[in-house]
Specification:
By secondary structure, this protein is mainly β. It has an eight-stranded antiparallel sheet with strand order 1-33-32-31-30-37-28-25. Strands 24, 26, 27, 29, 34, 35, 36 and 38 form an eight-stranded antiparallel sheet that branches. Strands 39-44-53-46-47-48-49 form a seven-stranded antiparallel sheet, with no helix packed on it. The longest helix is centred in the first third of the chain and has 14 residues, at 9-22. The chain is elongated, with a radius of gyration of 29 Å.
């Protein structure tokens, strides 16, 4: 809870107005402007061949570390085996080097039973690192701890009990710590995500599991807190089917860490339907099946989605000894994550990047990691100026300490200034029983500054603002009881306009244990230097710096737009029989008929899948060039496995399909309704060879009445058909999912299907085709 000192708001406002009139214009930053760096995906190119399910953390030494699923990461270097939870290290989030693995065949715990290890999640906990990982052969989650991001690792056993209480797979875990310090674990796969509280050292869950999301092939949950909401990121459809991987990242949000989570259309993530809230999906360029994400924040405050994807030009690894199936190549990608109207989306909705992109900001305008053991360019101010010194330790490397027992504040200030719109941060700790350590920003002199204290005497985050030597009042936010003062804590402060936001977290992963916001008077919101504040003995600081605050993207890229309706390729079904423009493949279908301005068509006990091509397909010519085709579908309720909808049909083994499908839910007798967007086509060479493959991805929410669109584009550069799918439950608000592509080996025709299992009836109100 935030609280003010005893000064009245009226007195503070009057004082601020006087000071504003007296203060000279804001100081400009003296640091040289930063040259814009660029990067290209995958960021793991030329380091490892594949790096699935990536998780990333910024270590206390100032480097970034990434962790991936056990995989054959060095095939191109002649290595046939796998690395167990491989580790990479980077100074800038885009150039990586191999840094080891969590376990080896010799050190792998016997309780794993030789299982492969998946889906790592990394956290900094009370002075050490917790690495959570999945043990699929045991259907559980393990945890290992280490004093540094690269080890040595000590296994702490299984985090979940034998019966976790979650309905489906006990893998794909992510830890999260709430405001106030309560830790949680999220986990689950195919087809339920659960959450439970954890013990204080984050090695075991405590209490009952709560189901917070369910959906067809839902997995890979990852939770962050932002602006009062808890966001549950997850992936659905197939992660690992090479060029036919339909994986994508979606999100729901809640006002509690245990839900209920809803998507961007208000659909509960526990509802028996596919969901909206698409964060990233394939866009028809190089990358297929983007998914299983974590998040990372650069020094400017810009968020980045960390995820894997399958390269279209080389989707499969060589067959691995001891594994009887081809593994998909899944290198690590990063892309800018934008928060638009309260919802996260990659690159404003443009999807995975190809080509050069502006890189994360990983170098401060002013600041230091102190790893060189000296203090060049830093200036001591205030009390105990001679008490500042550098020290070293295994994890943090170099850092600074303050040893004076003087209770008056002491400051260590950078030589250059940062801009007024700034993000500053520091790793702080207080090893004495009293005193404090603080992050200093907007500093011009000892009379003009803002400081965010970790105040041990009050067990609180305290911000203090001074202008012309006059204090404008403290604001105090309680820290959790049991706060580990001897462990490093990240304090990050963002000043945008006059709004100051300060967060205290263990590891910069959007799970702050304390957050404070306050509006500064204009006199205090200016450019200035950054630094460290100390009061009493035991204060220490590391990774202290500031950069210009990122500029948020506030507008999404446009969804596919249809042009003028093409009457020659449209049908209202208002005749007594089908127009001669339509032709049947394996038809006419029994019971299909037009009446009352609609085509009514009972679902068939027939398929259009791989070698089973027995279903009828109703087709008509498509226009030349780009186009969008739309239908309005009513699908009456029936038992599981009915589906009906649109196709763009080349032949039985080359098509795109968008259907409302009724599918069984794993381990239950229930069904779920999904909007399934799929393609079938020739698979690139694999071992063993597969001639034809089928790949689905899931669109937005389904409903008994559903509007459906397929947007077609001919990609001349790749000589490919490229198709995106959109669905709507009201005809006005659309959820667009990813893109599928196929080589242009034949002309596509517009089509309809009603198939899979008898027992329901599809009613198509119209087919409208629009120019591109």
């Amino acid at each position: 809870m935030n609280r003010r000192t005893s000064r009245t708001a009226k007195a503070l406002a009057a004082l601020a107005a006087v000071l504003l009139a007296a203060l000279p214009p804001a100081q400009q930053a003296t640091a040289a402007p930063r040259q814009t760096a660029t990067y290209r995906n995958p960021v793991t190119a030329d380091v490892v061949d594949t790096f699935p399910d990536p998780a990333m953390i910024r270590g206390k030494d100032g480097y970034w570390y990434a962790y991936g699923t056990q995989n054959p990461v060095f095939q191109t270097k002649g290595e046939t085996g796998e690395r167990m939870l491989p580790i990479l290290k980077s100074a800038d989030m885009t150039h990586w080097e191999y840094a080891g693995q969590v376990f080896t065949p010799e050190t792998q715990p016997t309780w794993h039973g030789g299982s492969r290890l998946w889906a790592p999640d990394i956290r900094y906990t009370n002075g050490h690192y917790n690495l959570f990982y999945s043990v699929p052969d045991k259907d559980t989650v393990g945890v290992a701890t280490a004093p540094t991001p690269t080890g040595p690792w000590t296994d702490q056993g299984a985090v979940l009990p034998d019966n976790s209480g979650c309905a489906t797979g006990d893998i794909d875990q992510a830890q999260f710590t709430d405001v106030g310090g309560q830790p949680y674990l999220y986990w689950g796969s195919y087809d339920t995500i659960c959450v439970a509280k954890m013990n204080g050292d984050r090695t075991r869950i405590e209490g009952a599991a709560t189901e917070v999301a369910q959906g067809r092939r839902m997995e890979g949950g990852f939770v962050v807190r932002r602006d009062g909401y808890y966001y549950l990121f997850y992936s659905d459809a197939g992660c690992c089917d090479g060029a036919f991987s339909g994986y994508q990242v979606k999100v729901g949000r809640a006002t509690s860490p245990t839900g209920p989570f809803t998507d961007d259309q208000g659909v509960d993530l526990m509802a028996a339907t596919s969901k909206g809230g698409v964060v990233v999906s394939a866009n028809g360029d190089r990358w297929i099946g983007p998914g299983h994400n974590s998040l990372q924040t650069d020094l400017s405050g810009q968020d980045w989605l960390v995820y894997h994807a399958v390269p279209a030009d080389d989707p499969d690894l060589d067959l691995v000894p001891g594994i009887d199936r081809t593994l998909s190549r899944r290198p690590m990608l990063i892309d800018r994550l934008d928060w638009i109207d309260g919802w996260p989306v990659v690159r404003a909705g443009a999807g995975p990047s190809t080509g050069a992109q502006p890189a994360p900001v990983t170098t401060w305008d002013t600041g230091s990691t102190f790893n060189d053991g000296s203090l060049p360019g830093w200036r001591a101010q205030g009390s105990g100026t001679a008490a500042w010194a550098t020290a070293t330790e295994q994890d943090a490397g170099g850092y600074v300490t303050h040893s004076s027992s003087d209770t008056d504040p002491a400051y260590l200030v950078s030589s250059s200034a940062a801009t007024a719109q700034v993000r500053a941060e520091a790793d702080l700790r207080v090893t004495s029983a009293t005193g404090g350590a603080g992050l200093l920003l907007a500093y011009t002199n000892a009379s003009n500054y803002v400081v965010a204290w970790l105040d041990r005497d009050r067990n609180a985050l305290v911000t203090d603002v001074h202008v012309h030597g006059v204090g404008l009042g403290e604001q105090v936010t309680a820290l959790p009881s049991g706060f580990q003062w001897g462990a490093w804590r990240n304090v990050a402060a963002e000043l945008r306009g006059r709004q100051l936001t300060v967060e205290v977290s263990a590891d910069r992963l959007h799970d702050a244990v304390a957050t404070q916001q306050r509006t500064l008077p204009a006199a205090a919101a200016h450019a200035g230097k950054v630094g460290v504040a100390a009061r009493g003995t035991g204060a220490a600081a590391d990774n202290v710096g500031a950069v210009k605050l990122y500029r948020p993207v506030t507008r999404r890229v446009a969804d596919p737009q249809q042009g003028k309706q093409l009457s020659a390729y449209s049908d209202e079904f208002d005749g007594s029989a089908l127009s001669s423009d339509w032709t049947w493949v394996r038809g006419p279908a029994a019971g299909a008929a037009t009446s009352d301005g609609a085509l009514s068509w009972p679902t068939q006990n027939a398929e259009l899948n791989l070698a089973n091509n027995t279903a009828s397909v109703l087709t008509r010519a498509a226009p030349a060039g780009d186009f969008t085709v739309e239908t309005k579908l009513h699908l009456t309720s029936g038992p599981a496995n009915q589906q009906a909808g649109l196709v763009l049909y080349g032949n039985d083994d080359r098509y795109f399909k968008l259907v409302h499908a009724v599918l069984p839910v794993s381990h239950t007798s229930k069904v779920t309704h999904v909007t399934e967007f799929a393609k079938e086509g020739a698979r690139p060479t694999t071992t063993p060879p597969t001639a034809v493959a089928y790949g689905p991805m899931w669109g937005g929410p389904a409903a008994e009445t559903l509007w459906m669109r397929l947007s077609y584009h001919y990609d001349r550069s790749g000589n490919e058909h490229e198709v995106r799918a959109g669905t709507s439950t009201d005809g006005a608000h659309w959820t667009w999912t990813g893109a599928w592509t196929l080589p242009k080996e034949q002309t596509l025709r517009i089509g309809l299907v009603s198939l899979n299992t008898a027992g329901a009836t599809a009613r198509f109100d119209y087919v409208h085709t629009y120019g591109g």
